[in-house]
Amino acid sequence: MNDLTHVDDAGRASMVDVTDKADTERVATAGATIRLQAATLALIAEGRAAKGDVIATARIAGIMAAKKTSELIPLCHPLMLTGVSVDIAPLDDGSGLGITASAKVKGPTGVEMEALTAASVAALTIYDMVKAVDREATIGDVRLLTKSGGKSGDYTRDEAAPASTPEAPKFVSRGFRRAPGANAAARPRALDMGPATPKSGTPRAEAFRTFLRESRLQVSSWAAQAGLPPGLVYGFLHGRVGRLPKDAEERLAKAANATVRDVFGSE
Predict the structure, then answer these.
(1) 48 and 120 housed in the same domain
(2) Does residue 164 lie in a domain region?
């Protein structure tokens, strides 16, 4: 028998019959990147893109795309998705934006394609929003990060966490804003969400970065495994969140098979 699930014994493409499969909770998270010029990131940060709010538009496009996956990919089953989220954050090296999309369903088949489609279309939407000023924007690294549920069990991609730098641009869901007096080509800054955190970070944040680096964990997949929004963890990593809630710390530690002290150090 052919090992490819979408090819029948005669070698013909076919939709898998899932009639007899039990409904189980299934979650998948996918990622993508879009490399952009520094001036383009600043344009997004300042809300000066001619077509409007780049980040908000891309997020909605990704969510809509997840719901349309079966219309785009011929052999995908139409699914009654119970949840879709799209997070967009600057890459730690300041070279562009990283996209993390998650899809969830309770049903007989998985949602990997829905998550991958959401991430891909979000990246394409960003390109469409900025192509007039950045024709060299490059989409890449479309990949499955994690999946859970179903006969094949759980999967987590083994990715090293990117190195953190104090100068890396920061992101919050409401967009970017340039710091007063900053040059237009400068790296974007996050919206003011409260008292500034020193660039050196808190001892807990430094301990967290060290654990992340030494354990070679990938933030988005680790957060998804812990059942947390990746944006929350990125916010802590980059100093926009002073301290994670105790429950979030415990869930991250458990997902990494470690103790809270291992991950965040002593008080």
Answers:
(1) yes
(2) no
Q: At residue 78, what is the residue type?
A: P
pTM: 0.58
Cα separation, 183 vs 138, whole angstroms? 24
The 10s digit of each residue's pLDDT in 211-256 is 888 888 877 778 878 888 776 777 677 666 678 888 888 989 999 9
* Span 66-122, pLDDT tens digits: 999 999 988 888 888 999 999 998 887 888 999 999 999 988 888 999 999 999 999
- Kindly state whether residues 51 and 148 are assigned to the same domain: yes
Give the count of beta carbons closer than 10 Å to the beta carbon of residue 2.
Answer: 10
Token output for 32: 């993508």
DSSP secondary structure letters along 158-182: --PPPPP-TTS---BTTBEEPPTT-
Same domain, 34 and 128: yes
**Is residue 5 situated within a structural domain?**
no
Q: Which residues of 216-252 are buried (b: 16+ CB within 10 A; e: fewer)?
A: ebbbbbbbbbbebbbbbbbbbbbbbbeebeeebbebb
Element (H, E) at 224: helix 219-225
With respect to residue 9, please indicate whether it lies within any of the assigned structural domains: no
Is-contact 174 89, C-beta < 8 A?
A: no
Domain that holds residue 250: 176-264
**29 and 138 assigned to the same domain:** yes
Structurally, the chain folds into a number of domains equal to 2
- C-alpha–C-alpha distance, residues 241 and 146, integer Å: 25
Q: Report the distance separating Cα 115 and Cα 29, nearest Å.
A: 6
- The answer to whether position 52 is within a domain reads yes
Supply the residues annotated as catalytic: 128
In terms of DSSP H, where are the helices of 78-202?
112-130
